Amino acid sequence: MFDTVEVYENASPPPPPHRKKKSRKRKPTRAKASLSAMLARLVFCSCGLLLLGSISATVGGILALVRPNVAWIGTQRRSLSQEMRDPLQGYELSRPMNVLLVGIHPDSEAQNSPEWRTENSDLMVLMRFDPETESVRALWIPPQTRVKIPQRGRATIAEANRIGGTALTARLVSDRLNGVAIDRYIRLNSQGFRQGVDWLGGVEMNLAESIPIVQEEDSVSENRPPGWETLTGLRALQFVGMRDGEADGELERVQRQQRFLKGLRHRLASPRVAPQLERMVRLMQEYVDTNLSAEEMLALVNLARSRSPEGLKMVLLPGRWRNADSEENRQWTIDESDRDRLIAEYFLPESRNADTEESAEDSSEAQRSLKRVKIAVQNASRDPLAVGQLVNSLKAQGLEKVYPVAPSPQTQRHTEIIAQNGDFAAASALQTLLTTGRIEVSFTGELGSEMTIRIGDDWLEASESDLLK
User: Fold this and answer.
1) How far apart are the first and last CA of the chain?
2) Which residues of the chain have pLDDT under 50?
3) What is the DSSP letter of 15?
4) Where do runs of H (alpha helix) occur along 307-441?
5) What integer pLDDT is reported at residue 350 of this predicted model?
6) What's the rounded Cα separation, in Å, for the pair 288 and 99?
7) SS3 of 428, please?
């Protein structure tokens, strides 16, 4: 529309008409010109109204999705100093949003050029931000997941970004996940990841494994022993990206990424970081490719930093390896039955949420299904006999697939029931058998298990008589 106006403005004026005697034929000419002008104005105004309507609809859609939360100003009567300490409280989602996170680890030459957007993806996570339940649910999709790309045939989901960008990637992810809608995307490279972690002042984590100390980009020195460490951007990048080429190595990488996300969430909730988050989020837009507005990103961060431990649930797309012995040809084949259960529980708004109350019939069925669940028991307490006692007690209750695993390098205060496969109902049924333990939905337990019980020191406070009901 603006180009058309500019052409008209820059056009030369029409030549003056020849001076002729007035004739009777001039009136019809004026009428035709007047009619043409009216039609032109009508068409022009109609196009303008349509364009204005489209813009209004777009803006309205954005405002309906994310709106500044101003109600708390009157109800909570926060002072200006309080508002400055926590500026993100001014942003909230008005309805759930599904965001596809695509991570790319380009080579050093493409790191700072637009070319990094056209490479294979190295990380893919579908995240659901739900303001109604104040929760974040994340589904890890292995880059080696098998898909069928139109006019290309069988390939891995990692190749979709190189072939068709985020549009093709989102389409394939939605197709493989029963048509789940994808509202927004974030495409992030390793440089942006490093910069974001450094801006936060690092992420503190209790590492169960040693990771090499990187002095420069291409040099590695001795390993740092396990324990608490504040990971800088470079150290965090190596931690979440380490792989050893084996099939289990890829799954261990998913576990480290989920553990890092928990640490990052804790860091975002820090009162020291809160005043800087709005500035950091706006600066990060330079390092990411996304169709999220700055306000939407602020709303997502505000929701993600909720302090509720139950507010974050992380699962792995169920499946198995095909050609597991070949790193080059290895592919992740989806288990469609378990996929359908996860999608229904965590990503379909019309389905019942995974953490809602269950009926007595559902609870009984979940307890019966525990007999078929592989449950690993790991000791993270100061009692060396805890694992043996718990394994024997659970087997006495009819749970045959219970087995001990190597103890955790660190002790912990609370006992955890980790739902590796995302089955919250089964985890709740197991919780009813114990007098202690809190449920965590994540892929951070023992590899090969469907559920992991990590015994904490609160076990010592429970007598053997009342441990099992």
Assistant:
1) 74
2) 1-33, 35, 39, 42-44, 49-64, 67, 70-82, 352-357, 463, 465, 467, 469
3) P
4) 336-346, 360-369, 386-396, 424-433
5) 57
6) 14
7) helix
* Torsion on CA atoms 47, 52, 53, 54, rounded to nearest 10: 90
Gap between the Cα atoms of 236 and 226, Å rounded: 14
Q: Which two tokens stand for residue 179?
A: 């048509």
What is the Cα–Cα distance from 136 to 131, expressed in whole angstroms? Answer: 9
For Cα atoms 115, 254, 429, give the angle at the middle one, nearest 5 degrees. Answer: 145
Task: Tell the burial category of 45 from Cβ atoms under 10 Å away from its Cβ (0-12, 13-18, 19+).
Answer: exposed
Q: What is the DSSP string of 231-295?
A: E-HHHHHHHHH---SSHHHHHHHHHHHHHHHHHHHHHHT-TTTHHHHHHHHHHHTTTEEES--HH
For residue 74, how many other CB atoms are within 10 A of its CB?
Answer: 8
Q: How many residues does the chain have?
A: 469
Each as own residue / partner, the long-range contacts of residues 321-325 (CB below 8 Å, 24 or more positions apart, any chain) are: 321/247, 322/146, 324/247, 325/247
pTM: 0.78
How far apart, in whole angstroms, are the C-alpha atoms of residue 142 and residue 317?
Answer: 7
